[in-house]
Design a protein that fits this description.
heterodimer; A: alpha/beta; 18 helices; 23 strands; 30% helix; 22% strand; B: alpha+beta; 14 helices; 43% helix
């Protein structure tokens, strides 16, 4: 049915007979509605058609409600009477006596445009006095059409975007009112906050599936734009098989298996799953980095180093290059003439910190000693995969916490360095040297070894096209490379203020990553534990239920949208329910993320 | 007013003096042993009534805006009243539909003598739902006046001698118009009532001018007209006042307690025809002329209410030569009133009255909306908007 004017909308909502309440006091931030005695929930959505100015429909979200009685000022007196008056009763009145008083936030308003469509605006205006209020009822078959017409720009484009879930009204999702995020959001920084059990893992699965679907539809030319890459750290090894082992849906493995061979080559190869375990399955590999892939910055980013210790590491790296870790672990730390001397205590402390990289103590990092232990790393292939648009799940169950953090850090740093090199290279011929220099390797005298092996491996892939930075004889623009998003699980461990004080690779990425198409997904149960510099760089937050008042306050304070008044909701959000705030949308949007189990195979939209 | 007024010595002295006089008057012993004994004898308990079948209880209350507007030499008064009707169905009340239409009257009164009188008489008639002649002729107010003054006025004299305040006398006009609205609504509901229905009114059955040879208030006639109509229709009308208007009531309460009645009792106040007298009634028109008054204690913790009924009805329908039968009939009325006070939206006060009050009351927003509507219509009819500018608001007095 056409919804080209206010009458159409009111008619679709059931006409004035179906009004739920009447607007009482109102301001541009807070509304009060007197409504019929019904079963409502905090978070319920309401529509308020109004003709003040022009035809508009205001969207109102309940943050609290109260039982009231018609013409009764003091409910306390009534309750007291009921308790103390013997044999008290409640007369049956003709008029409705028991009512509700709802108060909540004005999310904004939709205004009719000259072409008959609706444009959504921030809440800068107010509805008419005593305007009728309609409830957004999940079971009303007209509601999806109405909501999509009014909130089109805020809900997003299912045909182009990443589908996140359905619009949430109170405790229930509105079926067929999907909420999406633009793919661009992946090259920005995302905060995913929620207490244990709030549904973060399911949300990650839904995001993984959405990125997978995006790449698939791009390949089949059903949508346009850039591909996307998503590096999902999986501390519980859930994402690969999800609930398949207990009779539920298969995870990323299932998504991969739903593709034909050609699609797998284009969308999955060389791998989608990395683990510390020995594994022999298609597109599933044992994760391994080389000691040659690591720099002092990587380690400083994930563990405590004093200034002297950090300087010592940098000095060793400058002298030994990619062999610096092997040298340190073997105790080959003698300084040459003219170099700064370091105290034995500093040296010993650094050696202790690097102990987790001993061959016997790490499953991730391989030894590197030219002649004895050659460069053996999946990092170059991983970087190439991310630059081609891939979803990669990294099972970190057998990694130590430091190894898990190290994995993300190294990938983030090198990818960032590569894209900076690509941006800085004036032409395709200059790119190899730009890549070498970005990795600290300079073949020209006096020269420096830096990460020569990694650079060589990347240049090899640059030449054979796996690192897709050159098309013909031209450099590829970063704007044509995939949006890359790197997930940082247990983010407070590496994104806390102390760690970011100096030297962390994430400090630069958080500030500049967006310009290079690299975004971080900061996953945490706590908002307060994240460095404020990082928080200010987030421009999309998927906030789930937060049990702690301090965390709720921090989530509201750092939100990209105005979450004032949502304090209580952040406590009440159920499993899989999120408040989406993003600079890509004008208003906070409540979303019910569907259970991944219920989503079936890959298809367009839901 | 300056808030520091209460700190001034002259004001403090005045208040202290007044307080002493109040305390002295209140402490004056008024009830002797014989009187105490008579009170104890006439106090009557009634049962806590939790079940009542098929008793209809109606109630009326009024409100208004007096004046809602003033301009030049003219004033506009708004009067409203609302009646409600409930039926007892065992253990609660159920409203009987349809709800009577609210009585709403907008009255324009200029200061011009003739015009004002005509306008006011028209408003009285509209509110009463009948002409002044009909109402005055129907009621027994003139007979009561004749009984007390020795001269019964004719209908024409009564109309001519009606007290009609000046258009600007908003206090007196407010009382008259609001009373007429309430009684007009009551008259309508009595006319529509079935025999045995109880109609509850807020206030008393007092007739302030009945003992004066000249002059009367139209709502006095309307009050008695309601009584007459109620008798014809076999309907009971009870005026319930939250203020009994008597001093030394704590002594009567103590006597009741001494009798073991902490709640659920009534006491009919004696008239000159009774064999016992109550000294606290001296100098007060209680019971009012043509009425029988009761003190009524519902639940403990609640104040004592006063209930007035039509004396003629009481004589015909309640009073019996057998005192026990009289008490039985009285008890039936108070049991019904007690039952009606058990809705928990009130505290032992008949809920229909509370419902009528709530529905008749005008909120400030409603007053404002109606004022705007009148001004808007007046402008549409050709008046100037500037006529309605409120000088008090402009000068900061309102």
């Amino acid at each position: 049915m056409p919804l080209n004017n206010l009458e159409d909308i009111i008619s679709a909502l059931g006409g004035s007979q179906k009004r739920f309440g009447v607007l009482a006091e109102s301001s541009t931030t807070q509304l009060r509605v007197i409504a019929r005695n019904n079963d409502v929930a905090v978070g319920d959505l309401f529509l308020i058609p109004s003709q003040r100015g022009s035809d508009r429909v205001y969207v109102f979200r309940t943050t609290q409600y109260a039982n009231i009685m018609n013409r009764t000022l003091e409910m306390g007196d009534v309750a007291r009477n009921k308790l103390t008056l013997p044999d008290a009763y409640f007369s049956e009145d003709l008029a409705e006596e028991t009512l509700l008083e709802l108060s909540g936030m004005l999310l904004g308003y939709a205004e009719i445009k000259t072409d008959g469509t609706w444009a959504f605006n921030r809440p800068r205006r107010l509805p008419d006095h005593l305007a009728d209020v309609y409830r957004v009822t999940p079971f009303d078959p007209q509601i999806p059409t109405v909501m999509q017409a009014l909130l089109r720009a805020q809900l997003g484009d299912v045909g182009q975007d990443l589908v996140l879930g359905d619009l949430l009204a109170g405790e229930q999702a509105l079926p067929d009112v999907p909420v999406t995020l633009p793919v661009e959001v992946l090259s920005h920084h995302i905060g995913i906050f929620g207490r244990t059990g709030s549904g973060k893992s399911n949300l990650m699965m839904v995001l993984i599936r959405a990125v997978f679907e995006h790449n698939r539809l791009l390949r089949s030319q059903q949508r346009t734009g850039r591909p996307a890459s998503f590096l999902a750290i999986d501390p519980h090894d859930e994402f690969r098989t999800w609930h398949a082992n207990t009779g539920g849906a298969d995870g990323v493995r299932g998504l991969v298996q739903s593709l034909d061979d050609a699609a797998r080559d284009d969308l999955v190869s060389p791998f989608y799953y990395l683990t510390a375990r020995e594994i022999n399955a298609p597109f599933e590999m044992q994760a391994r980095f080389s000691r040659a892939d690591l720099t002092p910055d990587d380690l400083i980013s994930i563990m405590d180093f004093s200034e002297q210790q950090a300087a010592f590491c940098q000095a060793v790296f400058a002298r030994q290059g990619e062999e610096w870790i092997s040298s340190l672990l073997r105790g080959e730390v003698a300084t040459e003439e003219g170099e700064a001397e370091y105290l034995p205590g500093t040296i010993a402390a650094v050696q202790r910190r690097l102990g987790f990289l001993e061959a016997s103590r790490t499953r991730l990092v391989t030894r590197f000693l030219p002649g004895a232990f050659n460069y053996d790393s999946l990092l170059p292939d991983l970087l190439c995969a991310l630059e081609q648009g891939r979803v990669i799940v990294v099972d970190t169950t057998l990694f130590s916490e430091l190894e898990q953090f190290l994995f993300t850090t190294v990938v983030a740093r090198v990818l960032f360095a590569l894209r900076k090199a690509l941006r800085s290279a004036p032409d395709a011929a200059s790119l190899p040297r730009a890549i070498q220099l970005s990795l600290g390797h300079d073949a020209n005298p006096p020269g420096s070894t830096g990460q020569q092996s990694l650079a060589d491996a990347l240049l090899e892939r640059l030449n054979d096209g796996r690192l897709p930075y050159v098309i013909g004889s031209s450099l590829r623009s970063i704007d044509n490379l995939p949006h890359v998003n790197l997930v940082i699980e247990e983010a407070p461990s590496i994104l806390n203020p102390a760690r970011l004080k100096f030297g962390s690779v994430f400090r630069d990425i958080s500030r500049q990553g967006r310009k290079f198409g690299i975004g971080l997904s900061v996953v945490s149960q706590q908002v307060t534990a994240i460095d404020s510099g990082i928080l200010t760089q987030l421009n999309t937050e998927l906030t789930m239920g937060l049990g702690n008042e301090d965390e709720r306050r921090a989530a509201i304070r750092n939100s990209s949208g105005d979450l004032t008044g949502f304090e209580r909701e952040l406590m009440l959000l159920g499993k899989g329910q999120i408040l989406l705030t993003t600079t890509f949308k004008d208003v906070p949007i409540p979303v019910q993320v569907p259970a991944f189990d219920s989503m079936g195979g890959l298809r367009y939209g839901w | 007013m300056r808030f520091s007024l209460h700190l001034r010595h002259s004001v403090k002295d005045q208040i202290q003096g007044m307080a002493k006089a109040m305390a002295g008057w209140d402490a004056h012993p008024r009830i002797d042993a014989a009187e105490q004994s008579a009170i104890a004898e006439h106090l009557t308990p009634f049962p806590h009534t939790t079940n009542l079948e098929d008793q209809v209880l109606s109630a009326v209350d009024g409100s208004g805006d007096f004046p809602m507007l003033a301009y030049a030499d003219s004033f506009i008064y708004l009067s409203t009243a609302q009646a409600v009707r409930y039926r007892a169905i065992g253990n609660k009340l159920q409203e009987v539909g349809p709800e009577p239409d609210p009585l709403v009257d907008v009255c324009w009164l200029p200061e011009h003598e003739k015009k004002r009188k005509a306008q006011l008489d028209n408003a009285f008639a509209r509110l009463a739902g009948a002409s002044l002649e009909t109402i005055i002729g129907q009621g027994d107010y003139r007979q009561l006046k004749g009984h007390f003054t020795g001269r019964e006025p004719t209908i024409a004299d009564a109309i001519a001698d009606l007290i009609r305040p000046h258009a600007s006398d908003s206090g007196n006009l407010g009382i008259q118009l609001r009373s007429c609205a309430e009684l007009g609504a009551a008259r309508r509901i009595i006319a529509d009532a079935q025999p045995g229905e109880i109609v509850l009114m807020d206030g008393t059955l007092s007739l302030p001018f009945v003992q004066r040879t000249k002059g009367s208030l139209f709502h006095e006639h309307l009050k008695r007209s309601c009584c007459t109509l109620a008798r014809e229709r076999e309907v009971i009308v009870a005026w319930i006042s939250k203020s009994h208007g008597l001093p030394g009531i704590d002594l009567i309460e103590q006597i009741a307690k001494d009798q073991g009645f902490t709640e659920h009792w009534f006491l009919r106040l004696p008239t000159a025809n009774d064999a016992w007298q109550l000294s606290v009634l001296d100098g007060r028109n209680i019971p009012p002329q043509g009425a029988v008054s009761y003190l009524w204690r519902t639940h403990r913790g609640m104040p004592i209410f006063r209930v007035d009924v039509d004396a003629t009805w009481w004589t015909d329908q309640v009073r019996s030569d057998d005192a026990d039968q009289t008490r039985q009939r009285e008890t039936k009325l108070f049991a019904a009133l007690d039952f009606a006070g058990h809705d928990f939206r009130t505290q032992a006060y008949p809920y229909p009255l509370k419902a009528a009050h709530d529905r008749a009351s005008l909120t400030e927003a409603e007053r404002l909306a109606l004022r705007k509507q009148v001004i808007s219509e007046a402008i549409s009819a050709g008046m100037k908007a500037s006529a309605f500018v409120d000088p008090s608001q402009q000068t900061g007095h309102a």
